[in-house]
Amino acid sequence: MPTISVNRDVLFTELGRTYTDDEFQNLCFEFGLELDEVTTEKQMLMKEQGDHAGAGVSEEILYRIDIPANRYDLLCLEGLVDGILVFQGKKAPPQYTLRKNEDCHSLHLTPSTAQIRPFAVAAVLKGITFTKESYDSFIDLQDKLHQNICRKRTLVAIGTHDLDSIQGPFVYDALPASEIKFKALNQQKEMTAPELMELYSTHAQLKQYLGIIKESPVYPVIKDKNGVVLSMPPIINGDHSKITLDTKNVFIECTATDLTKAIVVLDTVVSMFSKYCANKYEVEQCKVFAPDGTYELYPKMQCREEVISVDKANSYIGIKENGDNLAALLSRMCLSAEHEDSVLRVRVPPTRHDVIHACDLYEDIAIAYGYNRIERRAARVVTAGGQQPANKLAEQLRHECAHAGYTEALTFTLCSREDVSTKLGVRIEDVPAAHIANPKTLEFQVVRTQLLPGLLKTLAANKKMPLPLKLFEISDVVLQDSAAETGAVNRRRLCAVHCGRAAGFQFVHGLLDRVMTLLRQPWDPATGYCLRQCDDPAYFPGRCAQVLLRGQPLGKIGVLSPAVLAAFDLTNPCSALEIDIEPFV
Prior knowledge:
The protein is of the alpha+beta class. It has 15 helices and 28 strands. It folds into 4 domains: 3-69, Phenylalanyl-tRNA Synthetase, Chain B, domain 1, CATH 3.30.56; 97-192 and 207-298, Phenylalanyl-tRNA Synthetase, Chain B, domain 3; 304-372, Phenylalanyl-tRNA Synthetase, Chain B, domain 1 (2-Layer Sandwich); 389-584, BirA Bifunctional Protein, domain 2, CATH 3.30.930. The longest helix has 16 residues, at 132-147. The radius of gyration is 30 Å and the shape is globular. The model has no long low-confidence stretch (mean pLDDT 90).
């Protein structure tokens, strides 16, 4: 869930009244939001970078507000203020108008763009007036969209330019890196694309985007009529066309691998900031020509109509309101509605791309009505709830492991192939692991088949802690099983590791005996549990035993091999225990 930071005093000025923190928190709740924190910029920097980071930083009060991930229209101060004022009935929902396109502002795509980012959309905001606050909000909205719907610029990259500093029509091309040379934003000299990629490889923010195009044979680039480079998406804009507080006309372009997302992003940006245009809420369309010569006009700014049943809305939400009242509730959520017979005709504006189904409208009705006003009622279906036996047993064992002096860890379910194979002395082909088809990182390639690697990585990350380190985890592993419907099964396991200056069976054997006593399993090969010596490359030769339950393998216990410790960057001896607890459920 994205979080936005807004200046409290600026927010209250825009809302037309002052609230206490509790009053504003209640307002956020009524509107379906959450006031996460009241802080200052200085406090935020000190929390992120340490006590020395707050010197000379503003101490104005900031509200950090959690926004639903699909409400792109609330990711900036402008959208938040408009939404709250409409919700309070102090303002009518904005009505957007589209201005006729000008051919000189058209954007032409070349065939080579299909190799990397095949889509683009564009728009123009005319006669815009920026203040310091609105300018910062304009930049911040782009960043929030990049992190949210744009998926860190992989799906969409936004470029904004001072239209008066460039000349259209514009060209969106894809060229070999060596053919691209321009002065990037806030740089002092022109550089080639490879030089820029090298420069930004250590940049705190931009280095995370380099991989999107780095291996491509061509890099995307947008130029104006005179060959001036506007941007090299999704990395950096050009310095020549950067917007400032004095900018009056803004050219906005979005390049994308997903056209639908690009349309949503462009609609959101122009909707939020067209309020600062000379003609309020007016947006100029641009012709975007495809490589085959056909064109589309953007932004779309489409309004569509949804029809929902009054009776269904009341039934699903649990209220009894007439159609006119339901229409009024929807209007408070920027959704103009009219009641006709037994249905509501709802006009969904271009700012509400999150509305894709009737249930979204029911949710907005419930928010506007007030969740706390909905009458509680008994369930119409007889049900019986209860804790799953495996979860109940796991909770009981967690308490006992903690009583034995072990600290619980919660590790990642996914891990690398090496974690469950090479580092433990076995081949990945011999491990019944469920592999991720398209892993995004080398750290998360398979679903773990043992809990042990996760605990060893936790030990490695806490080597500065005083010895001994005693960790345990009770969680699921996943094993391939051709007989299962999904091809894999979950198994609930208990794993414990003792890391100290010496290693031996006694350190974890005591925990095993305690667990078995609580599970009422006697030390008996026939009716209870016992140990049997075995060999495992993960354990020290001659110091590994198999835990048996009535003759069936339950897990292993032993002293870990020095090779395994070295693979996980550990220097102190470790003893480990890992058993399956599902037979006891």
